[in-house]
Amino acid sequence: MSSSSLPKELLELRASIDNIDAALIHMLAERFRCTKEVGLLKAQNGLAPADPAREKLQVERLRSLAQSSGLDPDFAEKFLNFIVKEVIRHHETTAAKENGA
Questions:
Q1: Which residues are CB-neighbours of 81 under 8 A, at least 6 positions away?
Q2: Domain total for the chain?
């Protein structure tokens, strides 16, 4: 089925989804730019790559935001955990470089 035969509303919704996906990628890139700086500061100050207390607070905060936004809080938590795991991996790599490993 060609896109010209699809309902206009479907095409408009898909265009909105494409724009949202692009915004998500840009926001994730900005988030990782910031967490890269955090990782460097942690490494330079001898701090651990992970901060379980902060992560717990973030999970609680984002679950609440998800709930009030009509998003499944379990999904939001899984998504955050995925991101945090990658951030910690980056922080560990940064710490190893800073410590000459």
A1: 59
A2: 1
Rounded CA-CA distance 92/98 in Å is 10
In terms of pTM, does the model score above 0.85? no
Q: CA-CA distance, 73 to 56, in Å (whole number)?
A: 14
Tell me 4's DSSP state. Answer: G
Rounded CA separation 74/67 (Å): 9
Q: Could you give the CA distance from residue 82 to residue 65 in angstroms, rounded to a whole number?
A: 17
Query: Could you list the residue range(s) of the whole structural domain that residue 23 is in?
Result: 3-98
Average pLDDT of adjacent 10-residue blocks, the chain of 101 residues: 86 98 98 96 94 96 98 97 95 89 67
CATH number for position 34:
1.20.59.10
| CA pair distance 83, 27, nearest whole angstrom | 12
Residues 6+ apart with CB under 8 A from 55: 84
